[in-house]
Amino acid sequence: MPHQIGEAIEQFREEGYAIVRGFFAPEEIARIAAAFDRQWSIGMSHRASWRHGNLFYRLGDDANLGKVVKMVQWPAYEDTLLERVRRDPRWLPLLKPLVGGDIKQIINQLHWKPPGAAAAEFAFHQDVKSRRPRSAYRNLPDCYVQTGIAIDAHRAANGAMRILPGSHKLGEYDLGLSGHSLGQKLADDQLTAAGLDPSKIIDLELDPGDVALWNVFTIHGSGRNTTQGDRRFYINGYVRAADCDRGEHAFRHGEPTQLGAPVLVHYEDLHRRPEPHFVED
Ligand SMILES: O=C(O)CCC(=O)C(=O)O
Q1: Cβ(161) – ligand 1 distance below 6 Å
Q2: pTM for the full model?
């Protein structure tokens, strides 16, 4: 594993993405998968999107499937296993060389791609677009690492992420996208229209327990799941604490830090409206 981690860090710097194989063991993935299923049931029990502090069940009306849970943001406040995974000490050898040992987290998210769901496609985008408010971040190209844990196998057929290697070196790039990438079709034409070469795109194929890393400027997206099974992905986004005014600590001075009372991440009304409520679209 140490050898693999060194290579992953180098590839992340050079190509804007990397994969570490077998980061979590099969029995751990089985437990995380069960946590996903619990979170899906909670989400589906609500009549509309529902928020409690930073915890947010974002529901959608899918053209093919009807009601779906598009994602859950900050399930770690609700589920102790998911909370432990986000600050598992095994992240440190991977993250420390990139952002140091004092690390905040700005993304804690569960993604599903149910078979056939159109609402679960991500058009090509760069995550930098969602790092708001921009004034809260310093040194963005170097301070941020997005990670995704494959719960199911990720293959081209079930909507594995597609990545443009080296695109992190382009900086913030106009991909002609209006609105959120989630729920918009993944199409090579989008890249061609933006002056990029879609033949350079690669599928990020992962086995359960593999971890993918990508840079905040890396151009990526993911298409439709055309298989019969689900495709689940646990995303945690880490940032050098000194370079970000938002976020929950995951590690302080190299020590895992448990979640406490929620702090400001993306939900601007956290202190004005902390109570549970529905969010109508
Ligand atoms: O779940 C996915 O495939 C897409 C992830 C992604 O594009 C993102 O989180 O920015």
Answers
A1: yes
A2: 0.97
